[in-house]
Amino acid sequence: MNILSVETSCDETSVAITQDGTRVLSNVVLSQIKTHALYGGVVPEIASREHVEGITRVFDQAIAEAGIPKEAIDLVAVTQGPGLIGSLLVGINAAKAFAYAHDIPIIGVHHIVGHIYANATKQPLEFPLLALIISGGHTELIYMPEHMRFERLGKTQDDAIGEAYDKVARLLDLGYPGGPKLDQLAHTGTPSIPMPNVALDGYDFSYSGLKSHVINTLHNLRQRREAIEPSDVASSFQTAAFKQIFTQTQKAIETFHPKQLVIAGGVAGNQYLRTHMHTVWDVPIQIPPLEYCMDNAAMIGMAAYYQWQQHPVGWTFDFNGHARMDFIQKAYTEGEEVIR
Amino acid sequence: MKTFLTIDTATDILYVHVMKDGRPVFEHQEKGHKDHAVKLLPTLIQALESSGLKGPELDGILVGVGPGSYTGVRMGVVVAKMWAKEWDIPLFKISTLALMASAKTTPTVAMIDARNQHVFAGAYDFSRPEPCLLKPGYYSRLFLAETYPEMDALETFNPNLEIILNAQAYEKVKSIDDLTPDYVRKTQAEKERHDS
Ligand SMILES: [Zn+2]
User: Fold this and answer.
1) Which of B45, B81, B85 faces A100 most closely, judged by CB atoms?
2) Which whole-number Å values give the CA distances from B191 to A54, B140, B187, in the listed order?
3) ipTM higher than 0.90?
4) pTM value?
5) Which CATH class is domain A123-287?
6) Among A22, A35, A21, which Cα is nearest to A12's?
7) Which has the minimum average pLDDT: A19-23, A288-292, B173-177?
8) CA distance A148 to A306
9) What is the homologous superfamily of the domain A2-117+294-325 according to CATH?
10) Which domains does chain B carry?
11) A15: contact with B, CB 8 A cutoff
12) What is the pLDDT of residues B18-60, one digit of tens each?
């Protein structure tokens, strides 16, 4: 089964052709990162404008690189949400237009479900699994007893981890996107600055307290005219940020005994995480290749395949995009109507 | 161009029109409630199917490109770009203000409210061979009232596609990939960056 998938939820315009939920024939990603770097973060109106400029060329390139005729496409899948609504609607309308033009069924896919299924590009998912989604927009822990069944165990109560990374990086003048730069800088420092120990009950996360603590610490050091070693700040923040991730995920592993832990989202590329995770968690860990950690359409195509297996019915052309979308158990396995 | 589909989603009006062999056969005009995303494709499909037309049979698609930055404008433009390419048919663009002004054959200033006593506006006289008198732009209401005191001001959307067709008040899009809405104004972020 050949699937053409579209992802425009934030600042990447992406179209992919995937096959049977396992093979990626093409995955074209047009990144706007250079534009948004000028503003120190993603500007939603500019993101929408750039999607309109790039979208048809990205379609063409994805189809050309896949080397299959359009008649061989069996399904169109598009990110329905969550994300920036103006950006989502460019991809959704492009996908609908393409599907109608070629008389191909279309379905919407949840962006986070896409992130989880990005792992299917490497090897089949094994259930039950635990999925940890860490990115600029999300910090979520999800339990999956089988394909397309989701139980959200926890989420961030305020900022996403990647968002906190970007904000602290900005305080240290590291530029945008600051997450990977902060990660690099942290390796040369020591976690010598005391950080609050955030330990929430259950499986939720919280990053605003940590971020405010860094702001206050930097402010106090500057007032006392004491030298600030940015690498130590970075290292202290990073250690504390991941302590929460390690602790909450470990609790879930002990309770749910998953066959594997799947990590996805942009922060899954973090080096500190990759060095420490195997000593912290005693469970098989899957991380998709870096190109599938970031937002991309191939992951949407992977998820779409399994969604279609559960409920092989195309949606009508009146579905909307949603900036916010909750997980509802069995949503997507019963079609569009239950998703709200 | 005798058989074509017209799409305009640049304002809160969802407008879809089909001309078949030079005669209007479908018109849909509806004030939306931020639901162009829900209604656009179903309305377009209804337009084609009730007119007994398949996409590739069209001589072209005519799309309203704004001005303005109403979220809807991108949807019409994106669908028009996709279909023109996928069906391999020509794409034509027109200012939404010209569509509005085609409701009258007398000199008219068409305006879309842009807040703070400003509007996106263009002036047209469809009785002339070159109908556009003032290019679409961002103007103060005061400037327009002082400059064109004798003209009718029009803020409603009620186009006459036969007038548009007769006047050929549209432009063929040379590079479909590159077509974007006519936002006229930069985003707030771009303005602030430019000013600082
Ligand atoms: Zn994402």
Assistant:
1) B45
2) 23, 18, 6
3) yes
4) 0.94
5) alpha beta
6) A35
7) A288-292
8) 7
9) ATPase, nucleotide binding domain (3.30.420.40)
10) 4-195 (3.30.420.40)
11) no
12) 999 999 999 999 998 888 999 999 999 999 999 999 999 999 9
